[in-house]
Amino acid sequence: MTARHPADFLPADVAERAQQALGRPRPAAPAPEPVERRCAECMKLPAKAGLRVVEADADAVCDMCGSSANKRAALVMIGAFHARGLKRLLVVGGGPGTAEDLRHLLAGEVEIRIVDGEGHRNAAKADADLRWADVVAVWSSTILSHKVSKLYTDRRDAFRDKLVTVPRRGVAALCTAVAEKVNAPAG
Questions:
Q1: For a Cys staple, 177 with which of 57, 146, 157, 166, CB 3.0–4.6 Å?
Q2: Is the dihedral of CA 119, 123, 128, 131 positive or negative?
Q3: What is the predicted pLDDT for the residue at 2?
Q4: Residue range 20-25: average pLDDT?
């Protein structure tokens, strides 16, 4: 049994007044260690310094991805970009809804340009886009006319290291394909 100090039996208001009378600030309670609950997929991602990561229950929302497959895939892609020192993504194709989702998910992390798959594009604009981008994702299964995609894929010989064809729809599919391209060994 541990002996207790007589001050342990004082009411909190009396202890507070005594501390003030002695001119000492009340000792600060230790700050609780920040905890981040994550789904099984996000447990693989690196944690920020000073955070304790714990696996979330099956019915709990992940603090990192919000239990969103799109956000989880975007976080993996962002991590791949950061690890390689890349900053700019060009997406050729996709609809207005997916474009907005991508802009929102990548905001502040990856610069993004999206080429309307049905819009008018010329070779000079396409060439400038290809030179600007670190990675070019041609989203083949979305709204994308052949005359637009051809402007980007015809230059495959000069920009092979940047190009990735995304054969499936959905933001998560695009982010996953781009992350795989970025993480693939050069060659």
A1: 166
A2: positive
A3: 67
A4: 73
Q: What is the pLDDT of residues 163-178, one digit of tens each?
A: 999 999 999 999 999 9
- Please state, in angstroms and rounded to a whole number, the distance separating the CA atoms of residues 135 and 110: 11
Torsion of CA 22, 25, 29, 31, to 10 degrees: -160
pTM metric for this prediction: 0.74
Residues facing 114 on adjacent strands: 91
**Residues 6+ away with beta carbon under 8 Å from 24:** none
Burial pattern 127-139, b for ≥16 Cβ within 10 A else e, equals eebbeebbbbbbb
Determine the pLDDT at residue 129. 93
User: Structure tokens of 184?
Assistant: 């693939």
Q: How far is 65 from 61, CA to CA, in rounded Å? A: 8
Q: d(Cα 35, Cα 91) in Å, to the nearest integer?
A: 36
Q: State the DSSP string of 104-122.
A: HHHTTTSEEEEE-TTS---
On whether the CB atoms of residues 76 and 179 are closer than 8 A, the answer is yes
Residue 115: name the closest of 151, 86, 154 by CA.
Answer: 151
- Dihedral Cα 87, 89, 90, 96, nearest 10 deg: -120
CA atoms within 13 A on the CB side of 99: 14
